[in-house]
Amino acid sequence: MSLALQTDSKGRLRHFLTVEGLPRSLLTEILDNAERFTGVGERAVKKVPLLRGKTVINLFFEPSTRTRTTFDLAAKRLSADVMNISIETSSAKKGESLADTLRNLEAMHTDMFVVRHQSSGAPFYIAQQVGPEVSVINGGDGRHSHPTQAMLDAFTIRRVKGGFDGLSVAIVGDIAHSRVARSEIHALRTLGVSDLRAVGPRTLVPTGIEAMGATPYYDMEEGIRGCDVIVMLRLQQERMDSALLPSAHEYFQLYGLTQQRLKLAKRDVTVMHPGPINRGIEIESAVADGSQSVILQQVTHGIAVRMAVMAMCMGNQAEAGE
Amino acid sequence: MSLALQTDSKGRLRHFLTVEGLPRSLLTEILDNAERFTGVGERAVKKVPLLRGKTVINLFFEPSTRTRTTFDLAAKRLSADVMNISIETSSAKKGESLADTLRNLEAMHTDMFVVRHQSSGAPFYIAQQVGPEVSVINGGDGRHSHPTQAMLDAFTIRRVKGGFDGLSVAIVGDIAHSRVARSEIHALRTLGVSDLRAVGPRTLVPTGIEAMGATPYYDMEEGIRGCDVIVMLRLQQERMDSALLPSAHEYFQLYGLTQQRLKLAKRDVTVMHPGPINRGIEIESAVADGSQSVILQQVTHGIAVRMAVMAMCMGNQAEAGE
Amino acid sequence: MSLALQTDSKGRLRHFLTVEGLPRSLLTEILDNAERFTGVGERAVKKVPLLRGKTVINLFFEPSTRTRTTFDLAAKRLSADVMNISIETSSAKKGESLADTLRNLEAMHTDMFVVRHQSSGAPFYIAQQVGPEVSVINGGDGRHSHPTQAMLDAFTIRRVKGGFDGLSVAIVGDIAHSRVARSEIHALRTLGVSDLRAVGPRTLVPTGIEAMGATPYYDMEEGIRGCDVIVMLRLQQERMDSALLPSAHEYFQLYGLTQQRLKLAKRDVTVMHPGPINRGIEIESAVADGSQSVILQQVTHGIAVRMAVMAMCMGNQAEAGE
């Protein structure tokens, strides 16, 4: 069903809502396209005319300067016209339904919506509403999915490690509430990572994680032992305010990534984090800024991956009349 | 005086502040130009270079994501550089007068201001202040005027009905407080609609409406009987909070457009609404989404009409120095 | 040290953080470049392709619609892609450090940051953090510096007076708390103004102003007598709320620029103000709007000067990797 909604009759990407259910060939196609777009950011003129005259609307129901900025930049580097609409401050106030807001924006001949929403599933709902000339990209929905983040992480791993086969990857932190973790597990499993570990306290590693293809580890040191890649998740303050977690200090004692602990992983281990970092809570500064960290490369790759996904979805749309 | 302020010595459009006082030939010229711009939104590259290198400032003293978005998009599709300035959050705080703010923005070689203001007349004041190289477009002022909305409605009617002669058009709702209704009555009268009806409760249909060329109807069923076009106005919540109206429920009972009532109009009646819709208050969902509704086409036409007005005003400006 | 940070090994502008310490030749080069860019604003197509495909981020930690608008416009007229990020409403909330926010934005291949910050020195800190492919422009930091404002004032003086030699220039108002005054004194001294006067109440003229090259005057009439140029500073409301100043009325009595007082200056005196003006507090309307005022020309020149500085910094960046 996810596959059917996201692809056209020839199996080409129409929307990008989740990595769950997408075939390995399609994920690899995204990575290969992103590879070509990385060059754009390094040129003197960082712009290609692929989406010239297209209208992209960033529809953010949940504030996020960082994610919005990356999509905004990606669209501008593809030469699209971009409009940022923050829905909290907009027609929601006038009592208009989401469906009516969407139909209105679509009637302006919008070509693409990038949607960020606090409710899981919202981008799916939107993709079901829009016509065949519009694409929807999920910029993060509730606890469900953050597929471009997962793909930029996969892209970074492939660049650094050359591929996915035989890798041990540990995802560490609040697995249960993280859309990044969910999407990442799906992406890396599909791309061929066989040893995938979900590391965190029992309260934050969901039961049934094995069914998604990851092995649970409740002990940090066991969890990262011998790993090729460690993906640290951001700890949300609200978890600590709830009863699910002890103090930030205690969390760091148990699950913080330190130089000392890093020695348990492979010598050439790669350290990743989706950002923004909580220094001294989930990761030690020496590690975040160390030679094995690729945290800033992830940001750079994020633009290329988003350009790839935008260009693919837009290129596969039904042609507009004429 | 409106005519003199809005046109140059050759009668060409310089500013677009109100339809009141503009000759039929000029309104027809706007519609004809809009006809050409509708094609732009349907192309793969939705962009024409007409306003390349021009600076358009959306100067919004009253928040409106929807209207701002349409002007922003129209300007971008004409290749202009667009800046959105929201005055509530801006220099007003620093105690600068409107005149000084304007002179400053004008000194930056701004070519066009799109003005939305809660006070009737503000765009006129601004048009009087600016120099001969600047155009002003009224994006809605107080209860006075919303000329681009009136023209997009006229454009939609002409597209659907082929013209204006012999049509019966009913405008239903809060006529008294609606800038849309005022502008619409002027536009449709000038364009040749002879049977124009203002339908609503006595408290919301202004006395003296006949002088504007419309016939008052206080009974909904009488008002829409035999009509070719019904324009439903949005009911503002604040009217219901005041003593002017009974409850939303009672309003819908008396003036809501239902499928049942729609049968009183002509068989090929066209239903319009400027949006955002209050479903179940002024209009039944089955009618809003029904086969006679052109509500979303109005939105699409809004971009073309705004492009036409912007291109005309800008094309008729005094040439900048050299 | 300011010079070393702001210029490359060949002495060319890399960042524009302060005029303090920059040689006269470099300031003159900025003015000469600005002269060429003034033409762009007067053309039908107000755009040059110099920064096409470059990414400029306006990073505003302190709100300022006016200054942001001028940088936004300048960058757009140079054909750059511009992103406006207001940090109060952004990742600062998520507890990310400024250094991490910057590294992130830099990792997106940003070419230039325009920084406005309430803390003196912030743009310097940022310039030290970024890599060789990024330029930083100071859009105003604390009480320290506002170099583009100083250069647009210098540009305006040179245009009106033909040069700087032999001029008497009075800067009037709250010298002590004004970043404009500080930058202006440095710029005009470097450019050759020999008679530079700092005029204001004792509480607002810093001791040691002579070391900067300006002569203190505590009496308005003495201070402006025989002057070629009078630069009035904006009086901040918060000064009056503190004990540093009497009422606005009393301030105007003592230091307001009136037509009467203006007669004490040279007959062809030029009146300047960085805006926004407090009419009737620091300046009489008849003077602000009078024939000797060049306040609006300053705004126009501000765009040209900012285009010049942006183009120079960007043109002197290390070339990005192939």
Report a brief summary of the structure:
3 copies of one chain form a homotrimer. With 322 residues, the first copy, chain A, is an alpha/beta fold. Chain A has helices at residues 2-6, 24-41, 65-77, 98-107, 122-129, 147-161, 179-191, 220-224, 237-241, 248-255, 259-262, 285-288, 295-315, and strands at 55-60, 81-86, 112-117, 135-141, 168-172, 195-199, 215-217, 229-232, 270-272.
Task: Tell me about this structure.
The structure is a homotrimer of 322-residue chains. The first copy, chain A, starts with a helix and ends in a 7-residue tail after the last helix. The first copy, chain A, folds into two domains: 2-145 and 300-315, Aspartate/ornithine carbamoyltransferase (Rossmann fold, 3-Layer(aba) Sandwich); 147-297, Rossmann fold. In chain A, strands 7-6-5-8-9 form a five-stranded parallel beta sheet. The first copy, chain A, has helices spanning 2-6, 24-41, 65-77, 98-107, 122-129, 147-161, 179-191, 220-224, 237-241, 248-255, 259-262, 285-288, 295-315, and strands at residues 55-60, 81-86, 112-117, 135-141, 168-172, 195-199, 215-217, 229-232, 270-272. In chain A, β5 (168-172), α7 and β6 form a beta-alpha-beta unit. The first copy, chain A, is α/β, with parallel strands linked by helices and 322 residues long. The mean pLDDT of chain A is 92. At the A-B interface, β2 and α4 of A face α2, α3 and α13 of B.
